[in-house]
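Q: Please design a sequence for this.
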């Protein structure tokens, strides 16, 4: 596993945990202590993996004791295997990988706000006629909105 070095804020940004929660997990020995002390304290991939595994197991409604017994003395590779594939995937610069393309049919929609609370969704791929109708509807209802 490649070792990168993080400041505490970088680790928090990548995981979304609070500094208080991170320190609590360190105190419970779910996450190792940082390398160094004070402002010079650093975290690495090992910390990042452990935090993500603890988060994942907490979302599974496991108790702290159950989490500790599950992660125990497992290797970094074993811990990574416990994570869902989407959580494991990162780019070379350490950022999460983009989500995979959907396997279901999808379409891009234009959203037209007719008035507060009323939207019109138009699929522009269905032709110019639909866009002209949407434009007529917008002119009719949009004008009433602006004059009200």
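A: Design:
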């Amino acid at each position: 596993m490649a070792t990168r070095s993080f400041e505490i804020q970088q680790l928090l940004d990548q995981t979304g945990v609070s500094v208080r929660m991170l320190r609590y997990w360190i105190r419970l020995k779910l996450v190792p202590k940082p390398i160094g002390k004070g402002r010079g304290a650093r975290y690495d991939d090992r910390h990042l993996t452990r935090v993500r595994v603890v988060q994942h197991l907490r979302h599974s409604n496991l108790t702290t004791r159950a989490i500790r017994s599950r992660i125990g003395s497992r290797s970094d590779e074993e811990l990574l295997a416990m994570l869902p594939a989407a959580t494991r995937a990162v780019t070379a610069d350490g950022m999460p990988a983009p989500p995979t393309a959907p396997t279901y049919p999808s379409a891009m929609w234009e959203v037209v706000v007719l008035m507060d609370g009323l939207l019109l969704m138009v699929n522009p791929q269905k032709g110019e006629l639909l866009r002209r109708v949407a434009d007529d509807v917008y002119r009719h209802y949009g004008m009433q909105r602006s004059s009200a």
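Q: Thanks. Anything notable?
A: The CA atoms of residues 80 and 88 lie 7 Å apart. Residues 128-147 form the longest helix (20 residues).
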